[in-house]
UniProtKB/TrEMBL annotation:
Transmembrane helix as UniProt keyword: yes
Family, as annotated: Belongs to the MscS (TC 1.A.23) family.
Principal subcellular localisation of the protein: membrane
Domain Mechanosensitive ion channel MscS intervals: 108-174
Compartment(s): Cell membrane
Protein name, as recorded: Mechanosensitive ion channel family protein
Regions crossing the membrane: 22-42, 62-80, 86-105
Domain Mechanosensitive ion channel transmembrane helices 2/3, residue spans: 65-106
Cell membrane found in the keyword field: yes
Organism for this UniProt entry: Dokdonia ponticola
C-alpha cells in the first residue's frame, strides 16, 4: 500500500508553486471515463423504446443534449479542482478578461444561446424539414452552437443556430401528415379549358404518391399575356423529395398534352410593320 501511495504521490511536472502528481492525472482520467460512462447510460435509458413512452425521438435528443452539456460543465469544473485550480477564484480573477472575450465572441454567444433555446423549447427537432432562405433542409443534429442539416442535393450544411431562431423559418414537419403543393403550366389560347383541367387532375392522380383523387384540384388561374395559365394542386406526404414528384407529374402532363394536341404556350410577340407613303 505504501508503494502505491508513493507512486500516486510522485511528481510529474512542476510549474511555479504548482505540481502535477500521478494521482491528479489518474483523477482526470477517472473523471473523463466516468463522465462518458454516465452519458452512455443516460443515452441508453433515454432512447430505449418504451411501449408507453409519449416522448418522440426529436424531444429525447434535445433532452439528452441539454443533459450532456450540463454534465460536461460539471466534469470540467471537477477536472480543474482536481489539479488544484479554484474555479470560483478563477472566474473572479478573470472577470475583466471575460468581458473582453464576450464582446469579441458576441456572435458565438448568440449562437450558443440560440442553441439552448432550440434544445429547451423543442420547436425544431431532429428529423424536421425546414425551409430557410429558400433552401429546404432536413435537420440531422442540433448542437450548442450550430446545427447540421442535409439539403435536397444530399449536401451537408452547417447552420448557425441564431439563423434559425432569428429568421423566418417554415417547418414543414409541423403540418399535417400531407402538405399541399402546386404546379403551374400555361397552354395556348384556344385550348379546351375543361380538357386541360381533366388532363392535369388525371396526370397527378396517375402518380403513385397521389392516392386520394379528392385532394387533387386543377384550376384556371389567369389569362396570361401569351397563355391560359393553369395551376395543379395536390397533396403529398413526401415533403423533402417533393421536387422529384413534381418532375414526374410534369412529364406525365407533357405526354398527355402531346397525345391530345394541346400546346404548352411560350412567349410570343407580333410585330406589325406599317408602311407610310412619301
Amino acid at each position: 500500500m505504501q508503494v502505491v501511495n508513493q507512486i500516486l504521490d510522485y511528481e510529474l511536472l512542476t510549474f511555479g508553486n504548482h505540481t502535477l502528481k500521478v494521482f491528479q492525472v489518474v483523477s482526470i482520467l477517472l473523471i473523463i471515463i466516468g463522465t462518458k460512462i454516465l452519458l452512455w447510460i443516460i443515452k441508453k435509458a433515454l432512447f430505449r423504446n418504451y411501449k408507453f413512452s409519449k416522448i418522440d425521438r426529436g424531444s429525447k435528443y434535445a433532452i439528452f443534449q441539454i443533459i450532456k452539456y450540463v454534465v460536461w460543465v460539471m466534469a470540467i469544473a471537477l477536472l480543474l479542482e482536481s489539479i488544484g485550480v479554484k474555479v470560483t477564484l478563477l472566474l473572479a480573477g478573470s472577470a475583466a478578461l471575460l468581458v473582453g472575450v464576450g464582446l469579441g465572441l458576441q456572435q458565438t454567444f448568440n449562437d450558443v444561446i440560440s442553441g439552448i433555446i432550440l434544445l429547451s423549447e423543442r420547436s425544431i427537432k431532429v428529423g424536421d424539414v425546414l425551409e430557410i432562405d429558400d433552401d429546404v433542409v432536413k435537420i440531422e443534429s442540433i448542437g450548442l452552437r450550430t446545427s447540421k442539416a442535409m439539403n435536397r442535393d444530399d449536401i451537408s450544411i452547417i447552420i448557425p443556430n441564431s439563423l434559425i431562431t432569428t429568421s423566418k423559418v417554415i417547418n414543414w414537419s409541423h403540418q399535417s401528415q400531407q402538405t399541399r403543393f402546386k404546379i403551374d403550366v400555361g397552354v395556348a389560347y384556344g385550348s379546351d379549358v375543361d380538357l386541360v383541367i381533366k388532363i392535369l387532375e388525371e396526370s397527378a392522380f396517375e402518380h403513385s404518391s397521389i392516392q386520394d383523387r379528392n385532394l387533387v384540384e386543377a384550376r384556371l388561374l389567369s389569362f396570361g399575356t401569351s397563355s391560359l395559365d393553369f395551376q395543379l394542386l395536390f397533396f403529398s406526404a413526401n415533403v423533402f423529395r417533393v421536387e422529384r414528384i413534381k418532375s414526374d407529374i410534369r412529364k406525365i402532363i407533357n405526354k398527355r398534352f402531346i397525345e391530345n394536341n394541346i400546346i404548352i404556350a411560350f412567349p410570343q410577340l407580333d410585330v406589325h410593320v406599317k408602311r407610310t407613303s412619301k
